[in-house]
Amino acid sequence: MKRYSDLEYLRLSKGEKFQYKLTSFFAAIPRKLWGLVLAIGRFFKNIGTGIARECTDVFLTFKNGDWKTRLSFLVMGFGSIARGQVLRGLLFLIFEVVFIWFMLIPSGGAFWLKQLMPFGQGRDEALNCVTIGTEGPSKGYDEILDTFIQVPHDNSFRILLYGVLTLFFIIAFIYTWRANVKQNKIAEQILRSGKPLKSGKDDLRSMVDDNFHKTLLALPLTGILLFTVMPIVFMILVAFTNYNGANNNGYTNALFGWVGWDNFKTMFSWDVGGVNYAATFGEILTWTLIWAFFATFTNYFLGIFVAMMINKKGIQFKKVWRTILILTIAIPQFISLLYVSKMFSLNGIVNGALKSLGLIKENIDFWGSTAHNALLPRVMVILINIWIGIPYLMLIATGILMNIPADLYESSRIDGASGWKQFSKITLPYMLFITGPYLLTSFTGNMNNFNVIYLLTGGAPTNPAASGAAGSVGYTDLLITWLFKITTGSGTKYYLASVVGILVFLVVAIISLVVYNLLPSVKNEEDFQ
C-alpha cells in the first residue's frame, strides 16, 4: 500500500481520502495483530527473566544474610520479630501457620491437590478418559432407615474447584514467602547503614499515609482474584473435561474426566454426529459482529443527532424532551422488552392496529416464528435496540456538546462553513476523542448484550440447519445467548460452554486491542490538549 505524505494527502479528493483511510485501517490490522503476538512473546520472556532474577536474589540473600535471615526462610517472620518488627513478623508467621494448617487437615489443600494430580485419578473405560477422582457415588444399606441410600464418594466438580483454590493459595504463600525474604534483606541493609527500622506504629501509620493506596486496593484486588481470575481459570480447565449436567449431576455419576483438546476439535469440526459445529459457530459469530456494529453505531450517531436537536437554540421544552427519553431507560428492560415482544407478536397490538387501518390483510410475522425468516427478526431487534440505546448516548453527548468551545463554531461560520462542515470538522472529532473508549466498550458490551435478544426473541426463530447443535440455535442468537442455552435445560454441556466462553474472550480481546490502538483518543491525544 502506498503511503502519502501530508502534502500529498491534502491534494487528494474526498473520495480518495476516504478510500485511503479505509485502506489504511484494514492494512494496519495485520501489523497490529503481529504487534500483539510480539507483545505476548515479550510478556512471557519478561516473566522468565523476572523469575530467574528473583531466584538469583533469593539465593544471594540466603548466602550473604545473617542467621536471622536464614532462619526466616523456614520460619516466616522470625527475622522481623528478632529485629524488633514484631507486628510485621507476626503477620508473616500467622500466614505460614494458617497455610500449613490448611494443607495438612484431613479435608484440606493436600487432600484436594492429591486427587487433582495424576496419581489421584481413575479411568472411565466407557467414556475413554481419565477421571478426576476414582470412585463415584454408590448405593449403601442404612440399617436405621432399612433402605438403600446414596453414599457419596469422590466428586470431580469439588475436586477441581478446591484444587484450583489450593493452587491459588499456594501461589499466595509463595508470594508472601518471597516478601518475607525481601523484608529481611531490606532490614539488614537499613541496619548496616546505621538507620533504625520501622516500628509497628510506623507500619500502621504508613498504611493510612504513604501506602494508603495499597490499603485501599487490597480488598478490591482480593475480590478480583477470587471472583474474576479464579472463575476464568476454572472455566478454562472445564473446557478440557467432559463435564455436563445430564450425566454428572452428583447423584448418578459425580465423576468426569479430562478429554484434552477434544472439545475444541468438536467446535471446529464440520461434522460431529450430523451437526456442523464449525459452521454454526461461524454463523453466530458473524451475526454477533453485525449486531454489535449496528447496535453500537446506530445508537451512537442517532444519540448525537438527538442531543444536537434538543440543544439547538430555539427548541422549546428541552427538559421535557430529555425526560421523555430518559423514561425509556428508567423502566426495567425485563418489563419494557417483554411488553414490546408481545406487541409485535402474530396476534399482538401492532398487527391488530395495522389490520384495523386496512394497511395489511394478513398478520406480519415480525419474529419469524412460522416462516423461520432470519432477516426481519434481526432488523427488528436492531431497531428496538435503538429505542433503548439512544437515551444513554443523548445524555453523554449533551454533556460533551455543552463543553465544546462556542468560539470554534463562530469562527467556522465566519469562514463560511456549512452545518455539515461544522459537524464533521468540529463536533464529530471532539465526540470521537472523548467517547472513543466508550465506543469500544459499547461495541464489546453489545457483543455480550444478553437482555435485548433473550427478552425480545429468546434467540428465535429456530435455525433448522443448526437445530441439532447444543442449545437449539436460533437466527437471532448471539454467542452469549447460545452459551446460556448450552448451560441450561436437561442436556447441558458445560464443557462446550467453556469452549465458547474462551473463544468469545479471544474475539473480544483481539478486537479491543486492535481498535483501541486506532482510536483518536490514543493516536491524536496531543491535538486536543
Description:
- By secondary structure, the protein is mainly alpha-helical.
- It has helices spanning 6-10, 14-64, 67-72, 78-82, 86-104, 109-116, 156-192, 200-207, 212-238, 262-267, 277-311, 318-330, 333-343, 349-356, 375-401, 406-414, 419-447, 450-456, 479-486, 494-516, 520-523; strands spanning 122-124, 129-131, 138-142, 147-151, 257-258.
- The chain has three domains: 25-64; 66-260, no CATH class; 277-528, MetI-like (MetI-like fold, Orthogonal Bundle), CATH 1.10.3720.10.
- Helix 17 packs antiparallel against helix 20.
- It is globular, with a radius of gyration of 31 Å.
- 22% of the residues are buried.
Characteristic key phrases:
21 helices, 3 domains, 65% helix, MetI-like fold, two-stranded antiparallel sheet, 529 residues, mainly alpha
Write the layout of secondary structure elements.
Layout: H1 6-10, H2 14-64, H3 67-72, H4 78-82, H5 86-104, H6 109-116, E1 122-124, E2 129-131, E3 138-142, E4 147-151, H7 156-192, H8 200-207, H9 212-238, E5 257-258, H10 262-267, H11 277-311, H12 318-330, H13 333-343, H14 349-356, H15 375-401, H16 406-414, H17 419-447, H18 450-456, H19 479-486, H20 494-516, H21 520-523
Antiparallel strand pairs: 1-2, 2-5, 3-4
Helix pairs in contact: 5-7, 6-7, 7-9, 9-20, 11-15, 11-17, 12-15, 13-18, 17-20, 19-20
How many individual β-strands? Answer: 5
Residue fraction in strands: under 5%
Radius of gyration: 31 Å
Mean pLDDT reading = 86
The main β sheet shows up as: 3 strands, antiparallel
Question: Looking at CATH, which topology of the largest domain would you report?
Answer: MetI-like fold
The oligomeric state of the chains shown is: single chain
CATH class of the largest domain: Mainly Alpha
Helicity range: 55-70%
CATH superfamily of the largest domain: MetI-like
Approximate shape? globular
Q: Topology as H/E string?
A: HHHHHHEEEEHHHEHHHHHHHHHHHH
The end-to-end span amounts to 32 Å
